[in-house]
Design a protein that fits this description.
Blueprint (H helix, E strand, L loop, with lengths): L2 E9 L4 E9 L10 E7 L6 E4 L1 H9 L3 E2 L1 H10 L1 H13 L4 H80 L1
Parallel strand pairs: 1-5
Antiparallel strand pairs: 1-2, 2-3, 3-4
Helix pairs in contact: 1-3, 3-4
């Protein structure tokens, strides 16, 4: 039986959520599967991937073929690299300790990249929010200045009209 490591779609129409499963290559996409080994949520940034690393490595070493998307996910999580190192140890190209050191170094590098991206996303959102607030504040100040400018001429015109009214009364009484 040819097995595949693939995604099984769940979730709403515009909010897909996937289960990572081991299935017979002849079964339908959302049909019967052998084992569920994780989940994948592409709606978050960065995408959330929960994977049973050891089970994925076991199935990969047993001959299960990943789909293209699953190959990318397994590569991202390091399963393909760990499988590659295990094959190198089996052939005698390197020792188990050297393979473990290489994999640990790779994991540390990958983790720092992921946390860096997550922090940059958070800081970008924060700076965009602060920029929006400053723009809104400046717009509000401009509106307040405009309103004050409209109110000032009306206030200046009112005393001028009051001064003109007594003068007009004085002229009217002088003519009489």
């Amino acid at each position: 039986m040819a097995t595949k490591i693939r995604l099984q779609r769940h979730g709403k129409k515009a909010a897909a959520f996937y289960h990572i499963v081991i299935a017979d290559s002849r079964s339908p996409r959302d049909g019967k599967f052998i084992e569920k080994i994780g989940t994948y949520n592409p709606n978050t940034n960065p995408a959330t991937i929960d994977l049973q690393f050891e089970r994925a490595l076991h199935w990969l070493s047993s001959g299960a073929e990943p789909t293209n998307t699953m190959r990318a996910i397994l590569s991202y999580k390091g399963v393909l690299y760990k499988n590659h190192l295990a094959k190198g140890v089996a052939k005698g190209a390197l020792t188990q300790d050297a393979a473990d050191k290489k994999f640990d170094a790779w994991v540390n590098d990958k983790t720092s990249k992921i946390t860096g991206k997550a922090e940059s996303v958070v800081s970008a959102k924060k700076s965009a929010y602060e920029k929006m607030l400053s723009e809104e504040k400046s717009k509000n100040e401009a509106k307040a200045a405009k309103i004050a400018a409209k109110a000032v001429p009306a206030a200046e015109a009112a005393p001028a009209a009051e001064e003109a009214a007594p003068a007009a009364e004085g002229e009217a009484s002088a003519e009489a």
